[in-house]
Design a protein that fits this description.
Layout (H helix, E strand, L loop, with lengths): L3 H25 L23 H4 L4 E6 L2 E5 L2 H11 L3 E2 L2 E4 L4 H8 L4 E11 L8 E2 L8 E8 L7 E8 L4 E8 L3 H9 L6 E8 L2 E7 L3 E12 L2 H8 L7 E6 L2 E5 L4 E5 L4 E5 L11 H14 L7 E7 L4 E8 L2 E4 L6 E6 L4 E7 L1 E6 L5 E5 L2 H11 L9 E10 L5 E12 L2 E4 L2 H4 L8
Parallel strand pairs: 3-6, 19-24
Antiparallel strand pairs: 1-2, 1-5, 2-10, 4-9, 5-7, 7-8, 8-9, 10-11, 12-22, 12-23, 12-25, 13-14, 14-15, 15-16, 16-21, 17-18, 18-19, 18-20, 20-21, 24-25, 25-26
C-alpha cells in the first residue's frame, strides 16, 4: 500500500499535463479549411446576345445618279453599308437648327449623293462602336437620315450630313477615306444596278421615295417556336420561387409576386411585364434611354430574332423594336411583332413582347408574289383613299403575318404598307377603295 500515494501523484500529474496540452492545442488549432469555390448562379439566356449595331439598321438606301434615283431595301446591301462605316472619323459640326423640308429634299436629290433611312431617331452614341467620334461628349440630338456626298471620293473625301427630319436639325462632318476605291466598289457601284426609285413630292413636307417598278417578293410559311412563359418568369421576377401563377382563362395566364405582374396572352402569343412602383414621369435623355433599354433586353438574350429599333417616345420613355424578316418589317393584328420597353425609375417599368419566334420555313409553301410598283400604290391612294399623302411617313413593302388554325404555323404575305406615326395600314384593294386586282 506504500506505493498508492506515489502512483496517485503520478497519475494526477499526468492528467494535469494532459489537460494543459489539450488546452494549448485547442487554443492554437487552425482547421485545414478546404477552399470553397463560389458557385455563381447561371444567368438564363432566352436567345443569343447581340451588339448595338445589330438592332440599329437602316431600312432603305437611295442613290442619285445623273438626275435619276436608284434604291434598295436589301438586307445584304444594308449590312455592306453599315460595314463601310466602321472606323470613320467623325467630327460633328452643327449646321442648321431650323431645317426645312424643302432643303432636305434638295440635299437628297443632289447628284452623287446617297441617303440612308432609319425608322427611328438615332442618338449619336448608338454609333460609338462604329464611328470614331472626335468629341468625347456627344450631343444629345438625334438623326434619322444620313446623306453621303461622294463627289470628291477621288480625293479620298466624303461629306456626311446627319439629318433629323422630325427635329429639323442638321449636323455635318468630313470623312477621310483610307480606301476610297473600296467604298465605291462595295457601296456605290452596286447601286447602279438597283431598281429605279421615284420621288413623290409633297408641298411643305419631305418627299417619299418609292420603287418605280413592280416588286417581286416571296410568301413564306414558318413553323413557330414558343418559349415557355415560365422562362420569362424566371428572368423577369426577382424571386421566381415565390411567384404565383393564375390561369384566368384558356388563353390568359397571370404571374405575380406582390410587387410585379406578368400577363400572358396566348392568342397574340405575347406577354406584358409590369413593375408598378418604378413608374416615373421624369424624361430620360434619348442616348441613356436607348442604352438602358438595349442592355435590359440583351442581358437575358431577349432579341430572339431580327428585331430592329424603330421608334422612341421620350414623353413616356418608350422604345420599340420591330420584327424584320429578310430585311422587311413584319406586321400583324393576329400576333405581337414588336418588343416595347417603357423605362421607369432606374429600372424597367413595362415590358411587352412576343414569346414566339419563327423557326423553320416550309419549302413547299414558298410562293413568288408580284406586287404593284410603288408608283401605282401612290396613284391609287391619291385616287381612291381618304388618306392624305402628307399624313404618311413612308410607304414600304413588308410582311403581313397570319396564324393558321392550329396556331403552330405562321404565313407571311408580302404587301405594301403605309406607315404613319408608327401605325401601319395594309394597303389592300379594300383599304385603297379599288377592286381586287392583285394588290393583296
Amino acid at each position: 500500500m506504500k506505493y498508492i500515494e506515489p502512483v496517485k501523484s503520478v497519475v494526477l500529474f499526468l492528467l494535469v499535463m494532459l489537460s494543459v496540452v489539450l488546452t494549448f492545442l485547442n487554443w492554437t488549432y487552425t482547421p485545414d479549411y478546404k477552399v470553397i469555390e463560389k458557385t455563381e448562379e447561371k444567368e438564363i439566356q432566352i436567345g443569343p446576345q447581340k451588339k448595338m449595331e445589330d438592332v440599329i439598321r437602316p431600312y432603305k438606301a437611295i442613290y442619285r445618279f445623273d438626275k435619276e434615283f436608284t434604291g434598295t431595301v436589301s438586307n445584304a446591301a444594308m449590312e455592306d453599308i453599315m460595314k463601310s462605316f466602321v472606323g470613320w472619323n467623325i467630327d460633328l459640326v452643327r449646321d442648321n437648327n431650323n431645317l426645312t423640308a424643302s432643303s432636305i429634299n434638295e440635299m437628297i436629290r443632289s447628284n452623287n449623293c446617297m441617303t440612308i433611312f432609319f425608322a427611328g431617331e438615332i442618338p449619336y452614341s448608338a454609333f460609338s462602336s462604329i464611328f470614331q467620334f472626335a468629341d468625347k461628349e456627344l450631343p444629345e440630338t438625334t438623326f434619322n437620315r444620313m446623306v453621303i456626298d461622294w463627289s470628291n471620293y477621288n480625293n479620298k473625301e466624303l461629306q456626311v450630313f446627319f439629318i433629323s427630319s422630325n427635329n429639323e436639325t442638321l449636323m455635318r462632318s468630313h470623312v477621310s477615306l483610307q480606301n476610297a476605291n473600296q467604298f465605291v466598289r462595295n457601296v456605290i457601284e452596286p447601286a447602279k444596278t438597283y431598281d429605279t426609285f421615284k420621288e413623290v413630292e409633297r408641298d411643305g413636307f419631305t418627299s417619299l421615295y418609292i420603287d418605280n417598278d413592280k416588286v417581286e417578293s416571296t410568301k413564306y410559311t414558318y413553323f413557330i417556336n414558343e418559349k415557355s412563359p415560365d422562362v420569362f418568369k424566371d428572368v423577369l421576377f426577382t424571386e421566381p420561387n415565390v411567384v404565383q401563377r393564375t390561369d384566368e382563362s384558356p388563353n390568359s395566364v397571370k404571374y405575380q409576386d406582390g410587387t410585379s405582374l406578368m400577363t400572358v396572352d396566348k392568342n397574340l402569343k405575347s406577354l406584358i411585364f409590369v413593375y408598378p412602383t418604378a413608374e416615373s414621369s421624369i424624361k430620360i435623355e434619348p442616348s441613356k434611354l436607348l442604352t438602358d433599354s438595349f442592355e435590359f433586353i440583351n442581358e437575358h438574350g431577349g432579341f430572339t430574332a431580327d428585331y430592329r429599333y424603330v421608334s422612341t417616345s421620350t414623353n413616356n420613355n418608350q422604345l420599340d423594336y420591330q420584327l424584320y424578316l429578310h430585311g422587311l418589317p413584319v406586321y400583324s393584328d393576329q400576333a405581337i411583332n414588336r418588343i416595347t420597353t417603357i423605362w421607369g425609375d432606374n429600372r424597367i417599368f413595362r415590358y411587352k413582347r412576343p414569346y414566339y419566334s419563327l423557326s423553320t420555313d416550309i419549302p413547299s409553301e414558298k410562293e413568288i408574289k408580284e406586287l404593284p410598283s410603288g408608283s401605282e400604290i401612290v396613284e391609287k391612294i391619291q385616287k381612291f383613299n381618304n388618306t392624305v399623302l402628307s399624313d404618311i411617313d413612308d410607304i414600304v413593302v413588308g410582311y403581313y403575318l397570319t396564324q393558321d388554325k392550329s396556331k403552330q404555323n405562321m404565313t407571311l404575305e408580302p404587301c405594301w404598307f403605309a406607315i404613319s406615326n408608327g401605325v401601319w395600314t395594309n394597303l389592300t384593294p379594300e383599304t385603297l377603295g379599288g377592286v381586287k386586282n392583285g394588290l393583296e
